[in-house]
Amino acid sequence: MSGPAVNAMTLQRPCAAWWGKLPSQGDFVGRRMPHALTMRWDEWLRNGMDQLRSDAADNWSTRFVHSPLWFFLCPASILGQPMVGVIGPSSDRIGRLFPLAIMATVDGSSGMPASDQDIERFLSGARDALIDARRLPLSAQQLDERLATLQWPFQQDGRTPGSASIHSLLADLDMGASQGNAARLPRMDWRACMRPGSTTSVWWISATPRHAPDEVVQHEVLHRRLFTRLFKGA
Fold first, then answer.
1. What is d(CA 22, CA 136) in angstroms, rounded to the nearest whole number?
2. Where are the domains of the chain?
3. Could you give the C-alpha distances from 68 to 85, 87, 156, 184, in angstroms and in order?
4. Which CA distances in Å does 105 have to 25, 32, 115, 153?
5. pLDDT for 158
6. Among 1-10, 29-38, 94-103, 152-161, where is mean pLDDT lowest?
7. Which domain of life does the protein's organism represent (predicted)?
8. CA–CA gap between residue 127 and residue 170 (Å, rounded)
9. Model-level pTM?
């Protein structure tokens, strides 16, 4: 499958980071994740996988692979940088299970979210890219080409971000393009969570035919119990 063209204008725009396992690759892979953030994020995911195996030794893998995709908004105080993204179950080429996450992040605590519409466009595109990365599957390069076209969800020094060129294609692995739905922001006051000094992150599911809407508010650190809440299965 050929990906969207990446031209000079596209390359000048901020691009989402990603980390985890791709079915097209043999091991962990990622792009543009700052080292410190990668280490903290990876520690949380590995600890969460250990907890999931401990809690559900007989069926943890089934629970994991049937878990939904979760959108998230995290302030800088949680892992050192503000984040907007999506995470879901995935695996590598030989079937070893591990999450895959796609996120926009900026340096420091000053990154302020863009408009609701821009964030929803970013999340819709990131979700669709994650789904296709698992389903087709996409190579690392093809995933990067998809992400390079996404609407940026943070304010950019007073500039108005360009329009997204990727529209919602799929709502989940079982859904075709004609059934795709847009990502929706959580009902709670999520902008308060993203203000400097906040220690609250929010994780949520947009409604699909397979999953009811759900929201999880996490205070302070990301811990194992949050992970098992997200990956408890359908």
1. 11
2. 8-230
3. 14, 9, 31, 15
4. 24, 10, 16, 9
5. 54
6. 1-10
7. Bacteria
8. 8
9. 0.86
